[in-house]
Amino acid sequence: MLTDRRAILIGEAIEKIMKEVGTGRVEKIPLIKAGGRYLAEDIIANQDVPAFDRSLYDGYAIMAEDTRFATKESPIELEVVGHIGAGSVFLGEIKQYQAIRIMTGAEMPKGCNAMIMLEQVTELEKEDKQFIVIDKQIQINEKVLKKGAEITKGTLLVEKGAQITPGIVGLLATFGYSEVMVGVKPTVGVLATGSELLEIDEPLEPGKIRNSNSYMLMAQIEKVGANALYLGKLEDRLDESYAAMKKALTQVDIVITTGGVSVGDFDFLPDIYERLGAKVLFNKIAMRPGSVTTVAKLGKQFLFGLSGNPSASFIGFELLVRPVLKTILGNEQPYLVFRQAILAEDFIVPNAFTQLIRTKQKVEGTNVYVSSNGLNMSSSITSLVGTDALIVLPPCDDGYKKGSIVDILLLSDEGQKINYFTTCN
Amino acid sequence: MLTDRRAILIGEAIEKIMKEVGTGRVEKIPLIKAGGRYLAEDIIANQDVPAFDRSLYDGYAIMAEDTRFATKESPIELEVVGHIGAGSVFLGEIKQYQAIRIMTGAEMPKGCNAMIMLEQVTELEKEDKQFIVIDKQIQINEKVLKKGAEITKGTLLVEKGAQITPGIVGLLATFGYSEVMVGVKPTVGVLATGSELLEIDEPLEPGKIRNSNSYMLMAQIEKVGANALYLGKLEDRLDESYAAMKKALTQVDIVITTGGVSVGDFDFLPDIYERLGAKVLFNKIAMRPGSVTTVAKLGKQFLFGLSGNPSASFIGFELLVRPVLKTILGNEQPYLVFRQAILAEDFIVPNAFTQLIRTKQKVEGTNVYVSSNGLNMSSSITSLVGTDALIVLPPCDDGYKKGSIVDILLLSDEGQKINYFTTCN
């Protein structure tokens, strides 16, 4: 069962896959559930923001003209003829040398064109009337946010495909979106292959290992925002495995298998793909780890045949499966964040394939340094702990020297200690 | 109701809050649900990994000594006397000049001390017997991963407090953790204050705005990993608001209010804190936006009184509430990721308070540039769209010039386009 395989470049593999991804379905969900999902519609301002001239502070709404000659030496007095809280509206009309008490965010009363902060006036009472004393000139529109100053009606606010961050949730609430259109979450089934696999709650046996890949992949799927379904293990028997795969395809949108794509005698996923009539997009990628990766398509469904090695299956997911899921979810920038960093160790052994090295970034000032995070073997599971990026090392005759600028792909946003400087440095 | 207020430094505010945070409760949950949660126990290796000498590739397990004199000119032949798949164990014993067919990951048979890849041998059949031909010397332990080579039993693998990444899920599965101890998710109630607020599904009215802060905060709470509960709005009436707050404290672990902490006539949260008997930790912070932030504690419960302005409440949450929630969840590094970046515009107006500027990072090579993302006003909601970091500018007599190195706090891990180079550059 040794198949003829031609290794293609990672970029080619991604292109072949992405050409086959259709658009996902969309659904309307309550705003309260929308955080982290992807917008399936452009968001356009259906009103001005603010919707009215609003006071920026607590204080008094006035006519700026009344303060024209106000100075410390000859302050002016304005009579307070009304009082409006936030959300209330003053219905009367202001006359010369009058003022209205106003709250932050309240609508400016008719006739007023500026405001002065509470802290900047002296309040007086004379003959049961309230006055304020102002000792400086106030400009027209001072401390007033004009109608439409932030957003005018009709403005495109957020484009379809954006991830709904808390800021976007706030924006949607401002414009009255109690529900919003988003991409439907695809369901991804995970099937492991290999008679050597035990369930995670089984005791170890000679020659066997626990099925860790499936659980890792399910966590990766959920982290991306899709739904994961554990479909168990395929045994090393072709007919049963074929039947299990057929059934899986009725349950989920996408099937990921781990293992069974190598050149070993019991690696019969290629046969299953053939019997299903699936179109194999490629069966080898010029990358390490994970060169024996097969991706096939049956109708609208993807079949990802990832390597059975933990690091290889982890990386295969991030590079190949993630952009498919993100695209189905509606994200138009579905790839890992791409940065550059400084290599902190030599990788001088040339490699014909692009190497993907698990790393934990070290930050010094504005520089980011990267080196291998532990055992750099595809079978390693500990090297994934603490890994927050992948170093991408394309084939290079001389390898890579310490100090080289290299590409990295970010995986994580884990927190670090922070210093708040009290003065500038 | 103008209270005497002393502005404290952000660092002081965080310290005062963090001193009051107790440890959260813990619970055991299925591994399949554990992604993104925080470990409430150290993870220690309960076995060696691998648990046995394992073959790294598909091929043949051999005795390295048999190949001592093998060369291209005088290759040696080994008889294939067995065949083991992954998960099977060979029970016989190998003799000189014999080999066993073996799969990737399988346990090395007794007597074998090296393996050779399938691609590197020639297979022969003679008189119904199988042979392989080897034309080079194989070293002892070649392509064999020794028992315990990756992890020895008893090793501390992951410390309590780590976020459970997909890699850690894989590790936990490897060691048979079908369940794992994690921090319990706290429930955070969100209460808005202000008669100017409409529900998000209500049509606009003169002088009113929709309650966007509560929805934004709920999205922030959920993003951090806690549970959010919408508790509605407090009206601008003290008795009813007091009763609503009392009730809220029976429903949730932490209450966040927005608005009502300024110096306006209707801002009576200070009175509510007093009637509740809550201890006010501080009521002003030397930061913009969000200086009028009050944090109080009643028994084990925190009361966060954030500013009613969208950007101020957003930032107040990220700086002050987030570390509390993360700590309760069990995270020992609960703060936003801290980096340095290059300022791409002048901020030369001196400010007595630390400014927090919403920004969208621009990456060029290994450099990150930051400048203000849109309208830099506390009332701005659009400036939060696309914001992926906050620039921290402590008070500085000369302000900050373009090109200065400044501190930034990362908010986001949104994806960007990536290039896969096919050769080194």
Automatic annotation (TrEMBL), chains A, B:
EC number annotated for this UniProt entry: 2.10.1.1
Recorded superkingdom: Bacteria
Keywords: Magnesium, Metal-binding, Molybdenum, Molybdenum cofactor biosynthesis, Transferase
Obligatory cofactor(s): Mg(2+)
GO molecular function: metal ion binding; molybdopterin molybdotransferase activity
Gene3D superfamilies with a match to the protein in the record: MoaB/Mog-like domain, MoeA, C-terminal, domain IV, Molybdopterin biosynthesis moea protein, domain 2, Molybdopterin biosynthesis moea protein, domain 3
GO biological processes: Mo-molybdopterin cofactor biosynthetic process
Pathway(s): Cofactor biosynthesis; molybdopterin biosynthesis
Catalysed reactions listed for this entry: adenylyl-molybdopterin + molybdate = Mo-molybdopterin + AMP + H(+)
Domain MoaB/Mog: 189-327
InterPro entries, A to Z: MoaB/Mog-like_dom_sf (IPR036425), MoaB/Mog_dom (IPR001453), MoeA-like (IPR038987), MoeA_C_domain_IV (IPR005111), MoeA_C_domain_IV_sf (IPR036688), MoeA_linker/N (IPR005110), MoeA_linker/N_sf (IPR036135)
Entry's Gene Ontology cellular component terms: cytosol
Top EC class, one word: transferase
Protein family: Belongs to the MoeA family.
PANTHER family registered for this protein in UniProt: GEPHYRIN, MOLYBDOPTERIN BIOSYNTHESIS PROTEIN
NCBIfam families per UniProt: Glp_gephyrin (NF045515), molyb_syn (TIGR00177)
Described function: Catalyzes the insertion of molybdate into adenylated molybdopterin with the concomitant release of AMP.
Protein name: Molybdopterin molybdenumtransferase
Species, as recorded: Ureibacillus sinduriensis BLB-1 = JCM 15800
